[in-house]
Amino acid sequence: MQGVRRDRGAALTAIAQSAAPARPSRIGGWDSSWILWILIIAVLLFLVVSPFVHLVLTSFQAEKTGEFTLKNYAAAYGRARYVEALFNSLKLGAGAALLAGALAVPLAWGVSRTNMPGRGFVRMLVLATFITPPYTGAVAWILLAGPNAGWLNRIYVMLTGAEAGPFNIYSFPGLVVVIALYSFPYIFIFTSAALELVSSEMEDAANILGAGAWRTMRKITLPLALPAILGGLIICFLEAIALFASPAMIAIPARFNVVTTQLFQFFGNPSRVEVAAAYAMPLLGVTVLLVLVQRLITRRKGFATLTGKGGERRPIDLGGWRWAIFGYAMLVAALSVFLPYIFLVQAAFAKAWGRGFALDNFSFQNFHFVLFEHATAAKSVWNAFLFGGAAATLGVIITLGVAYIVARKLVPFAGFLGFLCVAPFVIPGVVLAIGFYAAYAPPPLALYGTATILILAFTTRFLPIGYVNASAAIRSINPEMEEAVRVLGGSRLTALRRVVAPLLKRNLLGAWLLIFIPATRELSSAIFLYGPNTKVVSVMIFDMSEEGNFEYLAALALLLQMLTLPMLYIGQRALGRDFMLRRNAT
Amino acid sequence: MSKLVLKGIGKNFGNFQAVDDFSLEMKKGEFVSLLGPSGCGKTTTLRMIAGFMPPTAGTIEVDGQAISSPSGVVPPERRRMSMIFQSYAIWPNMTVGENVGFGLEVRKLARAEVARRVDRILEVVQMGALKGRYPSELSGGQQQRVALARAIVVEPEVLLLDEPLSNLDANLREEMRFEIRRLHDEFKITTVYVTHDQSEAMVTSDRIVVMNKGRIEQIDAPHVLYGKPRSRFVAGFIGRTNFVERDGGTYSLRPQAIGLSVNKPSANGVEAEIVDRAYLGEHWDYQVKPLGEARPLRVSSAPNAIFQLNQRVWLEIDPAAMVRVEG
Does the pLDDT at position A148 exceed 60? Predict the structure, then answer.
């Protein structure tokens, strides 16, 4: 550590002055880049380790005294309805994942492996679904399938003359449908990625032995993609049980609870963080377990064969059936995109959404109101973009640094840093928020309600996305590129600045967008951490739904979607059309 | 005084001894190759000279100053060396001119001076017209020339080359060998060249260090290595040879050193039989078995020396061409 200090000026006089023969400066010794590495380690401890440790500790601490106690657990699981909420979450996850699988797999197969018409269009619609925040989807479905007033019910009544429509979104099946409709893109992404790796030769081999197209698909193609499908189902399940918005909008009026809504109630007045922490443990445990299972499944032999080079991939000719599968894709799109957006737009431009499409019901007033009149709505959009931008910037810097350290093995146990970066993947947003609250709400930091805590929580939440992208990017750079800089007299930081960073520009922009876009719409961690001045648009929309202001809400939700479009455009220009629908985007 | 001195350098990775007791002294302006099969420790040695890796034993000195020892190393950026990499490592985000000027810029030379030197060196490597191009617009050979120019333009204390020609096709490789030697003759930079290709080493080098399993087998000028190999490994690795066991020792006998004729020679004749032959254009490659011996000898003969399979012939062996080798 007491080695010779290095600075750029000294580089010129290199060897002659470097050191006495007995004591050259130390290997990889103490230079400015090491300070950066230590900083990164400190940041990771702060972002990932400390909230997690505090979450666990808090669950064992008495509220005021901080003494060790098991009472929080007794309180958290002491009532039948608390335990019931846990099981509701499991049922919800399973139902949503299975339904999402039924929606996604045929679409993925149609798009990736067949001559279904409009494949690009279907892919675009899946993307549109993917970038629709769950709460926006939930609100749209309240407009569509609310009892009595919902549009589907009104259309049903109009067509059949019945007294009431059959649809009620405020029910367990209703919640399952809404969640499945907006999480099926995960399964789509996993499945189509796998299917695109199945070579036509494998299918040809089955054909030549006498199997027809359908049999080949059933016996060869689908089994090969099965690990990926299962992986997608698990991700979907985890997404569903960790989701806060849709259950809060639908389950609470329907008078049942799931884990996340129950957590929110523990967190409300009077706030019982300790009990919430104890209650969060099963959610955390199930997530950790299933992520491990998912890793195991997708690493199995069957999946490994998919990574072979395996020849060209021709689309399968479905004949007339291609219209059938296209029809199915359009049905799915109608439920997830067309109908919801039609009625969101209607509500956004309506004086009162229930009055329908009449011309005298048309108005820009809602947009004017949320943009210029409402006290905090416009600011909440600004906040979301500001915090999202800050989180994305921080996340990219941190993960790039860690990915670099790991790839170049600059410090001992570098792999552990990489592990810390992907660890938040197993921490649901609500649980993360409770950890952040437990760690940083009390003095001395007292960050509750500040922009800082929201930015840091968002950063942590999306570190895994950043890391996966950053490390793929770093691995694509030959270390000799940097060694060439150093041999010519540049420091490691010069190499980073002059060579690595310029070469990674596109990838880093992509990683930034992949964090930024979901961060601008993040609700499940924000809802636990925001303050009066730091309300973000997702929280704003959630509040409006509680107040029943669906016209303002629809206008605000559409504004958020419009503002996302330029980001998508930039991302697609920089990284290709499918940059959000790739596996390292999830 | 010697320019570059390696004293008892060793490097182990866990239990694996990659380099063991490597000692070498190089004069200023000398061109030395490290030659050996893959995994012999030559690249590891080069990377220790560059400062990318600390040795686990020994010291490296430049101009009498220690720059590497197990207790620490001067980092690569302060050694005033240059290196040419197997992948060339031409930065794709910079033009040819920017690549070549980078080292000068880091040395804080005035912009006009940088431009002047870049132009000059690009002329030397015949790349003057391509200064504004990006690397992706260049052929492999042109990238190689950019790498050479980039390394030489800073007038390094020591130039290191790590298998620089292994990614080029055969014709270009041959051309670049002479190019590298020409540049060395022009700039007289002390050079360490790592290769597994013996003809590359022989064309370019003043001396060759033959390495095997982390150890030095022999250090000598190319013609000495060929003519007087010290070990069985060197004799077998540099060119082709026959090993003859005699008087309890092993001798190397080059295929070119054996005469072949139908008539019994005046002295040192051995009667033998042709057991196999191949015509390679520049010479005949015969397998000739001395009568009563189990193993055939390999003999190279001029294209016009034609013998048939199973033909009885006489071998003429000059005892002075038999070189005793160890191992």
Answer: yes
